[in-house]
Amino acid sequence: MKALFNVMGAAAVLATVLASPIASAHATLKSSDPQAGTTLAAAPKQVALTFNEKIEEAFSSITLTDAAGNAATTGKAKVDSANPAIVRVDIPALQSGTYTVKWAVAGHDGHRRTGNFVFTVK
């Protein structure tokens, strides 16, 4: 019986070790500019998102909406040629208010990840 528990324990550890690279294979947001939840004295000219891996531009987007849900971005998100883990979108002059950034990206594994955050302009 003890041998069976040892085998089951070893199998659980092995499964965890083997699954770890798979779980971390997706693009994960590391940082943003502007930062999530921040209040800015001046409106930013762009939104830049930094991920833990290279992003596929063709399958990625960033949208910015105001508090009423109106789109504030008109351009397409572009991957930084110097660092393909960074995706940027230029934004027009923003009025005071709260804005929501919604993003969707695909990393090298092709899996699409999404997220959102807000920031405020005084």
From TrEMBL:
It comes from Pseudoduganella umbonata. Residues 26-121 form the CopC domain. One of its GO terms (molecular function) is copper ion binding. Coiled coil: none annotated. Keywords: Copper, Metal-binding, Periplasm, Signal. It holds the Pfam family CopC. GO terms for cellular component: periplasmic space; plasma membrane. This is Copper homeostasis periplasmic binding protein CopC. Residues 1-25 form the signal peptide. The gene is copC. GO terms for biological process: copper ion transport; response to copper ion. Belongs to the CopC family. The keyword Signal applies. It is found in: Periplasm.
